[in-house]
């Protein structure tokens, strides 16, 4: 159950990426560069920097820090996605929705 709630959080990060059209935690230079270029971990110095930034990201998440959810500008579909992201990023995992709830809400999006 707890693993699924972590997956819900991660899924919301993907929703955020699509909505914001940004890489999450872009303030972490090495992590962002790694994600952008899928760097080979043969470079030990780079590996240490990425691991350090991943630890920092983990600390931020555990502390309740989240990426800013973009403004929906009144678009009902974006408002729904924003609310799903917000719910899925709840600090207490048991307060996050189940995937069947997310699926149901996303199925209601209009074209």
Please describe the topology of this protein.
Elements: H1 2-20, H2 29-37, H3 44-62, H4 76-88, H5 99-107
Helix pairs in contact: 1-4, 2-3
Question: Quick gist of this model?
Answer:
With 111 residues, this protein is mostly helical. The protein has helices at residues 2-20, 29-37, 44-62, 76-88, 99-107. The chain starts with a helix and ends with a helix.
Question: What this model shows, in words?
Answer:
The longest helix is centred in the N-terminal third of the chain and has 19 residues, at 2-20. It is built from 5 helices and no strands. It has helices at 2-20, 29-37, 44-62, 76-88, 99-107. α1 (2-20) runs antiparallel to α4 (76-88) and α2 (29-37) crosses α3 (44-62).
Throw out a few tags for this protein.
globular; mainly alpha
Query: Total number of helical segments?
Result: 5
Rounded to the nearest angstrom, the radius of gyration is 16 Å
Q: In which range does the helix fraction lie?
A: 55-70%
**Which percent range describes the beta-strand content?**
under 5%
Parts with pLDDT < 50 across at least 5 consecutive residues:
none
Q: Which of globular, elongated, flat, extended, rod-shaped describes the shape?
A: globular
Largest sheet: none
- H/E series: HHHHH
